[in-house]
């Protein structure tokens, strides 16, 4: 589809862009009536000459969806022979610049780009690997691997195994296969068996058989695992999270917990991720930006609901209290409303 569009626009065949799944719980949707040329002209005017009209930039970029932003970038180049992202980088600064440039990144590339930067250079950002690979669907993971190969001419799994080790690496590799069982009915006998296996691998064992946790949590279907967690509680008297907390540590523990939370509810997982990115002294702006941008067209409405339910305040209020300036204005527009 995108290829056809590109041919019609005279852009020539670019590369095969994987179709994004259609989501309906985002805060950002297609803007109408949309005029890419008019937006491109408004953005050029906002950044031309001395000083920048940040208000125009942030209003346009947060209220158009990602596909429309790509059209604006194309119109910008056609009209002015300039690269919109380069202009944003030279005219804006700091966290606000990072947020606007993130919004301009084509949606299909977003996760691959984040993972590339998480494993680039000195030190690996395990938090990013955990967040993306625990929360994306098997189809999304397949997509990410394909895009990574296309864009960076490298194998994502090779890159990740080269930068990680131990059981943490094993579980990442399992998740990278994108082979989780499909949700087709639940076999109660297997539920019972898996719950018993986990109980014996952790609470009943001196030491922990991490491999059992990795295989079951990394490959069983979502509906099956939700039943396993209930059964586990019945058998052991513990939530599976409590056992993981006691029996594992470090990056593996964080990844196992993220997988469990995402099995229970992806929006609740991201609500918690956002909450802790802003809680306490200082803000983890990288996480705040990554989650707000990557979920803005997916499930940010659901994330807002979970946030309000679990943290006794709205996401909107917390962003308002924790950030400032144009950066705050743009984040609040992406948030799309207060839930109080």
Which keywords apply here?
disordered N terminus; mainly alpha; 21 helices; elongated; 340 residues
Describe the structure.
There is one protein chain. The chain is mostly helical. Helix content is 69%, strand content 0%. The protein is built from 21 helices and no strands. It has helices spanning 2-8, 36-47, 54-63, 66-80, 84-91, 94-104, 107-118, 126-135, 138-152, 156-163, 166-176, 188-201, 210-219, 222-236, 240-247, 250-264, 266-278, 285-295, 300-311, 315-322, 325-335. Helix 6 packs parallel to helix 21, helix 7 (107-118) packs antiparallel against helix 8 (126-135) and helix 8 runs parallel beside helix 16 (250-264). The longest helix is centred in the first third of the chain and has 15 residues, at 66-80. Residues 1-14 have low confidence and may be disordered.
Tally the beta strands.
0
**What composes the largest sheet?**
none
Order of helices and strands: HHHHHHHHHHHHHHHHHHHHH
Over the alpha carbons, how many angstroms does the gyration radius reach? 22 Å
Which class best fits the helix and strand makeup? mainly alpha
Q: What would you call the shape?
A: elongated
Put simply, the count of helices is: 21
Distance between the termini: 41 Å
Task: Flag low-confidence runs.
Answer: 1-14
Strand content: under 5%
Mean pLDDT: 92
Residues in helix, %: 55-70%
Ordered list of secondary-structure elements with their pairings:
Layout: H1 2-8, H2 36-47, H3 54-63, H4 66-80, H5 84-91, H6 94-104, H7 107-118, H8 126-135, H9 138-152, H10 156-163, H11 166-176, H12 188-201, H13 210-219, H14 222-236, H15 240-247, H16 250-264, H17 266-278, H18 285-295, H19 300-311, H20 315-322, H21 325-335
Helix pairs in contact: 2-3, 2-4, 3-21, 5-6, 6-18, 6-21, 7-8, 7-9, 8-16, 11-13, 11-16, 12-13, 12-14, 15-16, 16-17, 17-18, 17-19, 17-20, 20-21
GO molecular function: calcium channel activity; calcium ion binding; calcium-dependent phospholipid binding; phosphatidylserine binding
GO biological process, one term: calcium ion homeostasis
Keywords: Annexin, Calcium, Calcium/phospholipid-binding, Repeat
């Amino acid at each position: 589809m995108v290829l056809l569009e590109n041919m019609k626009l005279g852009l020539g065949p670019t590369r095969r862009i994987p179709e994004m799944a259609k989501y309906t719980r985002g805060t950002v949707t297609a803007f109408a009536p949309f005029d890419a040329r008019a937006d491109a002209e408004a953005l050029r005017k906002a950044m031309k000459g001395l000083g920048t009209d940040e208000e125009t930039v942030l209003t346009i970029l947060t209220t158009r969806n990602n596909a429309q932003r790509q059209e604006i970038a194309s119109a910008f180049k056609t009209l002015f022979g300039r690269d919109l992202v380069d202009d944003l980088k030279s005219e804006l600064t700091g966290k606000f610049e990072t947020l606007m440039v993130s919004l301009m990144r084509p949606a299909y590339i977003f996760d691959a780009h984040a993972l590339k930067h998480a494993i680039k250079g000195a030190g690996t950002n395990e938090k990013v690997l955990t967040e993306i690979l625990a929360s994306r669907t098997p189809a999304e993971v397949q997509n990410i691997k394909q895009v990574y190969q296309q864009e960076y001419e490298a194998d994502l799994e090779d890159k990740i195994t080269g930068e990680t080790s131990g059981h943490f690496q094993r579980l990442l590799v399992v998740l990278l296969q994108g082979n989780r069982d499909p949700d087709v009915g639940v076999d109660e006998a297997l539920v019972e068996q898996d719950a018993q296996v986990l109980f014996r691998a952790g609470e009943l064992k001196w030491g922990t058989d991490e491999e059992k946790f990795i295989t079951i949590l990394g490959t069983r279907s979502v509906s099956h695992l939700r039943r396993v967690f209930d059964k586990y509680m019945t058998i052991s008297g513990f939530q599976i999270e409590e056992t993981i907390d006691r029996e594992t540590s470090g990056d593996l523990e964080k990844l196992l917990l993220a997988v469990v939370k995402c099995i229970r509810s992806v929006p609740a997982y991201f609500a918690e991720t956002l909450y802790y990115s802003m809680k306490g002294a200082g803000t983890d702006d990288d996480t705040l930006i990554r989650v707000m941008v990557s979920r803005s067209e997916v499930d940010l409405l659901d994330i807002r609901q979970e946030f309000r339910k679990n943290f006794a305040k709205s996401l909107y209020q917390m962003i308002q209290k924790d950030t400032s300036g144009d950066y705050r204005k743009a984040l609040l527009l992406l948030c799309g409303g207060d839930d109080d």
